[in-house]
Amino acid sequence: MTHPVDRLKDIMVRLRDPNGGCPWDVEQTFQTIAPYTIEEAYEVADAIERGDMDELRVELGDLLFQVVFHSRMAEEAGHFRLEDVAEAMADKLVRRHPHVFGDEAAKPSGPAQKARWEDIKAAERKAKAQHGVLDDVPVGLPALTRAAKLTKRAGRVGFDWPSTDEVFDKLAEEVQELRVEIAAGDKEKAREELGDLLFVVANLARKLEVEPEDALRAANAKFVRRFEFIEAELKKDGRTPEQSDLAEMDSLWDAAKTAERA
């Protein structure tokens, strides 16, 4: 019986065959597929957030297919195969876990092991001639996640505030600067100051050991949940939000908060 991964690879080869394959699949490139890869990763995260294991199985399959797709295009161009991707990942895991696969003694705590992990990654960057502290923080990451990673990397070499107190001070400073530019009507400078404000928020999340994307995703879900409560309450009277006003919807929002705490 054909192994499922081998079957998936065979299907990908067939889809990419210029003679009788799928025209859409044949014309794709790494650049055109990359957005789908990112989208599938988010859909995996969404299934996890909702605790839907059946959906997670499906979404992990979609994400796996992205890996197979990129690997097939690379193989066609003579760069690498899916097997090379798996082998490189296995080597990296062994290399980064010397306390499991090597002679190094196990670390006594999670933070100590995390620090060791970062040391190993730094050595890998040096071996790849990536000498800058921020060299390999991917540009394609979500902006909030990248901001947190940039400040974390800089913090490892001492460029960091000692506590959250200083971050809150900077947050207040950035809010004030944003207010000034809004009052001045300078939209471009206000955009810049808003970016600075979000960067500090991401830094604060990092100091609190919170993933900013996760925090914002949870806030989005909470907003949707509470707004749907407002819609449901108005629907009881045969109305929609457009037929309400801010005062009433604010009151219903508070009722949604109360109901969540009950």
Structure, explained:
The protein has 262 residues and is mainly alpha-helical. It folds into four domains: 4-94, Helix Hairpins; 97-131, no CATH class; 132-210, MazG-like (Helix Hairpins, Orthogonal Bundle), CATH 1.10.287.1080; 214-261, no CATH class. The protein is 74% helix and 0% strand.
Give a short summary of the structure.
The protein has 262 residues and is mainly alpha-helical. It has helices at 4-15, 23-27, 30-50, 53-76, 82-96, 98-101, 110-127, 143-155, 164-184, 187-207, 212-235, 246-261. The protein has 12 helices and no strands.
Name its key features.
262 residues, mainly alpha, globular, Helix Hairpins, 4 domains
Q: Summarize the amount of helix as a percent range.
A: over 70%
Q: How far apart, in Å, are the first and last alpha carbons? A: 54 Å
Structural class: mainly alpha
- Got a strand count? 0
Number of domains: 4
CATH superfamily of the largest domain: MazG-like
- Per CATH, which architecture of the largest domain? Orthogonal Bundle
CATH class of the largest domain: Mainly Alpha
Per the CATH scheme, the topology name of the largest domain is Helix Hairpins
What is the element string, with H for helices and E for strands?
HHHHHHHHHHHH
Query: How confident is the prediction overall: mean pLDDT?
Result: 90
Protein name: Nucleoside triphosphate pyrophosphohydrolase
Pfam family, one: MazG
Keywords: Hydrolase
Domain NTP pyrophosphohydrolase MazG-like: 28-101, 169-226
